Amino acid sequence: MREPACGNIAVRMYRGILGDCFLLRHDEAGQPRHILIDCGVLQGVEGARDRMKTIVDDIQAVTGGDLDLVVLTHEHHDHLSGFSYEKERFFGDAFDIHELWLAWTEDPNDPQAAALRQRFTRTKAALTKVVQLDALAMGDPRIGTVQALSAFIEPLPVDGPRKTTVDLLREKAGGRTTRFLEPGDVLRPERLPTLKAMVMGPPRSEQRLRKDAPSKGAGKEVYLTDLEEAFAVEDRARRELGEEPLIAELPFARPYQRPIDEARHSWTELAYEGVEQLYFAEPNVWRRIEGEWLDGAESMALKMDSDTNNTSLVLAFELPDRQVLLFPGDAQVGNWLSWADQTYPREASKEHPLPATRDDILSRVTLYKVGHHCSHNATLREFGLEKMTCPRLVAMIPVVESVARQNDWKMPFPDLLDALLQRTSGRVVTGDGDPEQERAVFADNPSDDRYPATLAHAEDGLWVELTIPYEKCRKGTG
């Protein structure tokens, strides 16, 4: 008769939302403790608010309103909107947040973080104006791209000073129990000391933060938005909407400027009309440039989406037997590459005489939360998945293919999904998977002969849960 596992950790993924919402459950000295990692649903998903209400009902029922640790990986709607949809409960009396972990990018007293927020805020403002153009029936597909990507971005407060979701979370948790984490930090949740967390990202390096795609070339690598570009796009969108422009000055000195209407009736009228007729002539449609600024808006939306993903807080939770559960948020290329820039912790100590390396950590991953709904550029191959060599590996993908198809997104990306299925011997669960098929795969291909991961599904399809056993209960906190 085999010896029972020393303990286990349950990871519940909420389904049907194309968003990240994970509830971890672990016993500490016989007392159940809970970690909530993100809680969001993509904007525009049918029935999103009702679904999120049901999810928060379940979270409250399981935890009794005690959230021992809340982790917010990054500021995208599909990771944090649940907190705002159910703000009366999360920020009222229904829940207690005992500890809050955020990336260093959320630290209000960090100068580098403040510069990033300034860029993102200006870009959000510009994209909000561009999306409004769709109401004018401009019909340009580039506006559609901006609109689709804006579904991931948390909207700006409409009245300016209103608090963001992150502000409210910080207030709820309180300053003493809010931590802003740096790459290379190694720490333990106050109420879950059995677990050790290694902070792998986001990087401090501007070069790493700016690297969003794996290869160079047009459309392959995008960078953080310049303030000037965001300012110009918002100004043009305001003009199209008939609003007060941001840029009052033109590139010519005032003595040389003439209002168009005045110029029409001046002595240059004939010359002006000739140019006008030539410009708007049907054979010259391909030469017109008045809509080209939308290329910049489309590119900026892509950059905003990727750059926010690259600020994801990446956590590797180590179990007592050194198994690792990897939660990378939506980290993209630069974030992943930066994991090799430091050890964990950054320096050796009495508690950690041999700091862990990226390769060591990835080789011990037994549960991988797949980044960005299994998109093409949120899981590295050579320096990521191929280093996850543990035969016990299982994967969870928060994706809903029907919603992704509506937006022409390849989620899950076929090549990556194939690689995941091969690496895990098929042990992959998704946000819209067939429970019967998933259970069959886990039964036919157990993750371990002695202590396999086990699978459970809610009868109503609300969640899927993986329980990861560990076989050693180490003494101390090393």
UniProtKB/TrEMBL annotation:
Record domain Metallo-beta-lactamase: where: 20-130
Top-level lineage group: Bacteria
SUPFAM superfamilies from the UniProt entry: Metallo-hydrolase/oxidoreductase (SSF56281)
PANTHER family linked to this entry: DNA INTERNALIZATION/COMPETENCE PROTEIN COMEC/REC2 (PTHR30619), RECOMBINATION PROTEIN 2 (PTHR30619:SF1)
Protein name: Metallo-beta-lactamase superfamily protein
Organism: Pseudomonas jinjuensis
Native organism taxonomy: Bacteria, Pseudomonadati, Pseudomonadota, Gammaproteobacteria, Pseudomonadales
